[in-house]
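Reproducibility note. Readers wishing to regenerate the assembly model reported in the main text can use the exact inputs given here. Chain order matters: entities are listed in the order in which they were concatenated for prediction.
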Amino acid sequence: MRIIQCDSKEQAINAVASMLLEKISAHPASVIGLATGRTMEPVYASLVKLSRDSETDLSRAFFFMLDEYLGLPEDHPSSFKHYIKTHVLEPLHLNSSQFAFPPVHAAESALHYEQSLKEAGGVDLQLLGIGTNGHVGFNEPGSLKNSRTRKIELTEETLKSNRDQFVDELIPTEALSMGIDTIMEARSLVMLATGKSKADVIKHLLNHHDDPNCPATYLKSHSHFTLVLDPDAASKINLNI
Ligand code: GLP
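Running the prediction on these inputs yields the following structure tokens for the assembly.
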């Protein structure tokens, strides 16, 4: 695991946006796995700015979503699909044919998504945030290392920490998420953690391996896993590890 400790939140955000852009500049037909959440919003804003400044062509890239809530009406403003449209697809003037969203209605949706991932040749770079309980995507504590894309029941902690993301009272209790094993198949993983609320889970991540109670720890055995931290998220770790 490579750890990049940044001097500011802005630097951490720009570092991740630059990694994404560099990947696409070097390989325009890259397959990128996108994460959502508050952490990623400024990353996408930075990506929009950097890609404009550098005039990078993003029209050949393809994007897979990491996860999605189940039970929300199509295009609900709290859905991750809506988030990605608002923060990525529209501001970057991309085409919806460049995106794969988890097909949340069909019974065979998980299998179908895995199949689409395979057909696209797998993910080149997977962006990841981390939940305060150590979840990645929506792989909640208890998730197995060999888990694949599937339906997951959300924990109370996740529901509580995501509540402010909902525009109305409709808060889903289930989600579809790429599994740990699915995520591990990406050729590189880039996780960003910012803010004091992530300091405890980052400390746990660095001190544990393959801990089912903190699924993010599974990712440490990936050969190209980069963890980018701002000073607050890194505030409880020993810098000399
Ligand atoms: C969300 C998403 C994750 C995200 C995490 C952290 O619910 N499923 O992909 O990384 O929880 O979210 P935030 O960045 O808002 O703290």
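We highlight two features of this model. The chain has one domain: 2-194+208-229. The mean pLDDT is 94.
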